[in-house]
Amino acid sequence: MASLVCATEDHACAEIEKGVGALIIAEELLTHRVAYRLRETLDRLPAWSDMPIIVLLRQGPQTKSVRNILLLPGDVTLIARPLRVNTFVAHVHSALRSRRRQYLVRDQMLELERSESRYRTLFNSIDEGFCIVEVIFDENDKPVDYLFLQTNPSFSKHTGLIDVQGKRMRALAPELEEHWYEIYGHIALTGEPARFQQAAAQLGRWYDVFAFRYGNAERRQVAILFTDITARKRWEDALRRSENKFATIFNSAPALVGITTLKDGEIIDVNESALRFLGYRREEVIGKTTRELGLWGDQSDRVTMLQAMEEQRGIRNLEVNFRGKSGQTYTGLLSAEFIDVDDTRYLLIMVQDITGKKLADQEIERLNASLAAQVAELKGANEELEAFNRMVSHDLRQPLSSMGLTVQALELLCGENLDEACRNYVQSIHHRVIVMNDLISTLLAFSSSTRQELRRETINLSSMARGAAEEVRLNEPNRRVIFRIAEGVTADGDASLLRVVLANLIGNAWKYTGPREEAVIEFGVTEIEGQETFYVKDNGIGFDMADADGLFAPFKRLPGADTFRGFGIGLATVNRIIQRHGGRAWATAKREEGATFYFTLP
């Protein structure tokens, strides 16, 4: 303990402001001016400061200055003189203890101020929303509303509500869900804190909330720390939808899809298509390796796949063999990608079963081989047919020609010496020779129609039809026949073969309209089932469609056609030529109402 003697009131006041423990002053020094200066100095001290002042009274009756001393702002103690040392020392110690307590209070107040400052800084700077509310209950202690007491600056950012202090939630959000009131009411009554995530539909937000009781139970106040997690929830929902979509695609994909570890091929997941195809249940494969299940037809296929993966960072359509639960081997096209999750590398594998395709390819190869053999055989047959045609053309026509010349010579040289019966025999032989020669020509034409190489070009079918019409008219110029030939009809095909087609069809129409007093033959083009279709139509004798099955067969003639010239080769030749062009030929007719022959040229 130290003491200091001050000679003037200014010195004393300066030391008081520095923070002395106590002031000891004699009564006679407390003049009006000194008292005024002391009062002024003491008033400037902090509120916690109550300066101990010991006044040493002089002997005699109490003066007016004593009453002024008692009015000083401080803890004033009056000690009469003469002094008793023990009493004086006791009073000084008591004053200093009082002053020490004041400084302790000061320190506590300063610490409290610093703590409040830190709290206020934290309160105002945290990004989370924070508020203190008073929960309002009805007469049955049911929470019905809450009143906002305090909010931090982030409150508005997280709620969209402003100026809420002193306002009730029911007034701010009338449609807020009841569970908010129930949760906060339970916390206020029980003191049990709660951490939860909940949606506030009227605010259009999701919140992550931690709430606890603030103060004692009678206050029924709840402190709420919360964060707007709407964006996170939307992201989680989007992720969940994406995962569900992936799971749906994963499980519904027709291909065999699985996820395995890269290191040992342990199966992490596999889709339903793979389970059904391989014949396993899910619990039989999850956690097992592909080696344990014997899925690889040849284990070297896995080594090949991994090598390709390392080199190319992924593979597409690697042909592999694999086995099902029954032991049956299949062939598939394997594609794979790396998937990295938490420092672990996995394989996403998809296998497209091509077992059926492989079998079909093998069958095609077999059929191609068989077809090649048949083609070779057909080629040989065609060569034989060509040889036969040459034989027919030379070996059969030569004697026919000799026979025809002989009959003509006989008729010329001996005609006057022959009786009528002999002349009829000679004429019959000559006619049969002509018919036989025509048949040979027809057969040769039919044969060449199937062997002649196609030379496609754009052809004016209208002009070609007019030429065919002029040729048949030359044979019977006196017949009354009307030709209606559409103009500008063109097609893509072989000119010489299509000339044969129109000659046969128009010749056929000319022949079977013979009984008509006035015949009509029409050539044109129409559209049937979206395809350009050409036709030759007549008003001839027609035919019964029930007899039309063999209409285009070689040497097949319809009932009643025997009275007309022909060998049954013309329509067969037409059909062969049209088929070689990739089209088709058909006919419609009614007996005695004419017929229409159609053909297409793709």
Which helices and strands appear, and what pairs or packs with what?
Layout: H1 9-18, E1 23-26, H2 32-43, E2 52-57, H3 64-70, E3 75-80, H4 85-125, E4 129-137, E5 143-151, H5 154-159, H6 169-172, H7 178-190, E6 194-200, E7 205-214, E8 221-228, H8 230-252, E9 256-261, E10 267-270, H9 272-278, H10 282-285, H11 290-293, H12 299-312, E11 315-323, E12 329-341, E13 344-353, H13 355-414, H14 420-451, E14 456-460, H15 461-475, E15 481-485, E16 490-494, H16 495-512, E17 519-528, E18 531-538, H17 570-580, E19 585-590, E20 594-599
Oligomer, anyone?
single chain
Amino- and carboxy-terminal Cα gap? 127 Å
Strand arrangement across the biggest beta sheet: 5-4-8-7-6
Which structural class fits the helix and strand makeup? Answer: alpha+beta
Shape: rod-shaped
The CATH superfamily of the largest domain is identified as: Histidine kinase-like ATPase, C-terminal domain
Mind telling me the C-alpha Rg? 61 Å
Largest sheet: 5 strands, antiparallel
Question: Which range does the strand content fall in?
Answer: 15-25%
Helical amount among residues, as a percent range?
40-55%
Mean pLDDT: 83
Number of strands: 20
| CATH class placement of the largest domain | Alpha Beta
